[in-house]
Structure formats: C-alpha cells, structure tokens
Amino acid sequence: MADKVEFELVSPSKLVVSKPVEMVVVPGGDGDLGVLPGHAPMIATVRPGTIAIFAGGQVSERIFVAGGFVEITPDRVAVLAELAEPVSGIDRAASEQSVKDAREDMAMARGEFDKARAEEALAVAEARLSAVAQPAYA
User: Which residues constitute the domain of residue 74?
Assistant: First the structure.
C-alpha cells in the first residue's frame, strides 16, 4: 500500500491543490471524512467547512470550502468545491460582518426560496468564521 494519497481540490475558477498527501480530512455532508491511502471508494457531498491537509503527522494546510462534492478512491481524493480559499487568507472582521449581514438577510427573507438562500448563505458565513476562530485539528 502506498504511503500517500493524491489530493486534488478544484474550484470553479482554478485547480487549487494537486499533490500527494499523507492524509486529508474533508468536511463531508454527514461528518468529517478522514482519508488515508487505501480508503474505500465513495462519493459524498461536502458541507461548508475546513479541509485539513496532513504532513509529518500534523496539519500542514487548512483550506475553507463552501460546499461541493468529494470522490474518494483507494489512491485519490478529488474535491469539487463551490469556493475554496486558504484559511490563512480569511479576514476575521470581514467574516464576522458577513455573519451579521446573513442573519439580517434571514430575518428579512420572504418566501421559501429566499429563506432557503438566506439559510445557505448564513451556514457558509458561519463556517467561514469558524474556520478562522477555531482552526480544525489544531
């Protein structure tokens, strides 16, 4: 069995990461997915949260994703994300303002469609703030 798994993270605008890693933890729709070489094949949704890339037995990189899909094979992990950005580049004050704005939008939403969009925007804003305030796997 190989000691690395090939990890690819793609956003709509670019290939964000493509490299072999020891382990990657992806925020799956039903819980975090820790992927090591030899993982069972699967396809799952990705919820807003932080992808943690491991090297040397510890987190080497954290990337915020706003949702998407993940495909896992025994030797590869491919994440197709709606948005991806390094956690180190997220401005905490701007994230706090985004949460405040999203909550106001939720309060003003009328109709099921507007409420659903506002709920989704709030979930992303809160996850983005959490990525900065409480680093995953610290």
Answer: 5-87
User: Which pLDDT value is given to residue 1?
Assistant: 53
pLDDT band at 2 (very low <50, low <70, confident <90, very high): confident
| Residue 12 token pair | 């709509």
Give the contacts of 6 (CB within 8 A, at least 6 positions apart). 18, 19, 20, 75, 76, 77
Kindly report the pTM of this predicted structure: 0.91
94 & 81 share domain: no
| CATH code at position 13 | 2.60.15.10
76 plus 10 within the same structural domain:
yes
* CA-to-CA dists, residue 91 to 17, 85, 112, angstroms: 21, 11, 31
DSSP helix/strand/coil, 126: helix
Answer whether 19's CB lies under 8 Å from 5's CB.
no
Domains contained in the chain, number: 2
* Residue 75, domain member (yes or no): yes
Residues in Cβ contact with 24 at an 8 Å cutoff, skipping those fewer than 6 apart: 5, 7, 34, 35, 51, 52, 53, 54, 77
- C-alpha–C-alpha distance, residues 10 and 111, integer Å: 33
